[in-house]
Amino acid sequence: MTQVTVRAPAKINLHLGVGGLRPDGKHALATVYQAVGLYDDVTAVEAESWSVGLTEPVDGVPLDDDNIALRAGRALAAHHGLDRAARITIAKGIPVMGGMAGGSADAAATLLALDRLWDLQTSDDDLLRIAGTLGSDVPFALLGGTALGTGHGEIVTPVEDTSSVWWVVVLSDEGLSTPAVYGHFDELSPDAPAEPPVPDALIAALAGGCPEEIGDLLANDLWPAARDLRPDLVDVEVTLRSMAPDGVLLSGSGPTLLVLHEDVDEARTTVAELTAQGYRCTLAPGPVAGAHVVTYA
Ligand code: ATP
């Protein structure tokens, strides 16, 4: 085999419960992830030295050792004691700095692509463990579907989700820094609990699969911090809530906003209305599968 392409999905957080800042600089999370149908495709080819590129230029994606895909490749090689390298090429379909974990998707896709390219047969447990050392959202990008995330998000447990929904994804022209949002959360929430509670009601609603019940239970503790840092989001939120009072959500640390729909035609109508008002938006189904191989050569 000379090349492997893996597709990995964006994530949203149906619930994002954030704990107080810990001495190690991290936050305990109790989150419910859902993988949604916006994807990055990552192609790995054996090479003399490590490098990363994009199929098309995209602002904000580092093309040096800061790229998390390269960190993932090196971590997998180190885990197996291999002195090998690869050229990683990314086709980005996930917004950059949008709160949809595009970098994490690339890391997960790289782990899987190199595991297959080099026929390493890494166990699922080891892949998830290596993923967790790369970033909180990376294990979930491997798993996909809908899952509870605990620890700082890296401990993922699948949850039953019988829903099948459409998210209107409202994009922002400017990214929002995840560390900045968490930093402001710390200022706004000095009394946040050490361990945020697991959202049992949402987990029960997902098993039932009723989008209206799920819509009522969407929650994100980072909303106040994101609104402060990006006051322009407040107007967008007001517009979206006038269309779907209970199905509006900030994606992760933002600035992407989401509107839940059960029916794809209604979702398309919302996209058309928002587009006519000048918003940039797209549609994504959820839940979808985690990182998976799409082509071998
Ligand atoms: P986070 O996953 O930290 O919540 P996000 O989902 O909002 O972030 P990403 O698109 O993952 O946004 O980008 C976060 C940061 O990671 C950016 O500063 C970006 O420069 C950096 N980065 C590193 N590697 C990648 C990559 N392969 N794709 C996108 N961004 C990357």
UniProtKB/TrEMBL annotation:
Residues annotated as transmembrane: none
Binding site for ATP: 95-105
Enzyme class: transferase
Keyword Kinase annotated: yes
Domain GHMP kinase N-terminal: 67-145
MF terms in GO: kinase activity
InterPro entries, per database record: GHMP_kinase_N_dom, IspE
Keyword line: ATP-binding, Isoprene biosynthesis, Kinase, Nucleotide-binding, Transferase
Top-rank lineage group of the source organism: Bacteria
Pfam families, A to Z: GHMP_kinases_N (PF00288)
Coiled coil: none
Pathway connected to this protein: Isoprenoid biosynthesis; isopentenyl diphosphate biosynthesis via DXP pathway; isopentenyl diphosphate from 1-deoxy-D-xylulose 5-phosphate: step 3/6
EC identifiers of the protein: 2.7.1.148
PANTHER family: 4-DIPHOSPHOCYTIDYL-2-C-METHYL-D-ERYTHRITOL KINASE, CHLOROPLASTIC
Record-stated family: Belongs to the GHMP kinase family. IspE subfamily.
Biological function: Catalyzes the phosphorylation of the position 2 hydroxy group of 4-diphosphocytidyl-2C-methyl-D-erythritol.
Name of this chain's protein: 4-diphosphocytidyl-2-C-methyl-D-erythritol kinase
Source organism: Nocardioides daeguensis
The encoding gene: ispE
